[in-house]
Amino acid sequence: MAGITRLTVYAADQTHSTFFKACRLAGFDPANVRSIPTGEENNFALEPARLLEAMQADADAGLVPTYVCFTVGTTSSNAVDPVGAVADVAARFKAWVHIDAAYAGSACICPEFRHHIDGVERVDSISMSPHKWLMTCLDCTCLWVRDWHRLTGSLETTPEYLKNDVSDSGIVTDLKDMQVGTGRRFRGLKLWMVMRTYGAAKLQEHIRSDVAMAKMFEGLVRADDRFEVVVPRNFALVCFRIKPHGAMAEEEAEEANRELMERLNKTGKAYLAHTVVGRKFVLRFAVGSSTQEERHVRSAWELIQKTTTEMMMEGSIGEII
Question: What positions carry a catalytic annotation?
Fold first, then answer.
């Protein structure tokens, strides 16, 4: 274990916060966790050249680049890290490569979205969460590992009271040896029921319908000069905001958008979440409910427009058009 202080791990600054929590739990030195900066010029996706620079600098300093986590569909903006290019960089250092496709992985049941994971055959593991976008109740996350012996070798426990002939024979895989806990819920049954109930065609229809509605919402935002789409839409998430005009400072734009979000959420008719990307306070409109229809999206947009107009008339946000 003495060598663990030399191990370094990498992810984009848009990676889900659980990455950093997992690194702490695994015992990595916080000083060796690298958060690679992303930018608007690359739609906040991980830049392979920056990753290579960071990994090479660590290797030159005597550290050991060990693990790279990249994302297909980041939480903040749905950015997609380039799978193949990142895998190529990691391969130079023989680092473990994991894809977090918790949300957008579900979209890959549709052939037209599979290009987002081009190069997936070169990764070591990938996870996706059907409870996010595939009609499955919380919680259900799928993990695929190329070499499952890496898990069992690290997590295997064989106390006398758990020994049995079937396990010893290798006929079965003991899930206790592929996770931290000894027992687990039968989460797979949830997904099996969804797949059997809807079938591939209906699940694909669900994904495509959500994407189409999000695309429509994006068009409505772009058609109103008071707003801007901050990041080009991927999948079914639209990141937008009231656009600052004239002498309106960024701080004032944040205040206006925050107030708009709070007013909308208080109505109980729509719910928007926010994030900050590129130092901009951004509103997030996600389509994904199993009962959501186009009329709901249009109604939400009309509410957004109406509330914005009211704020302007009250002088809450000043002149922005």
Answer: 161
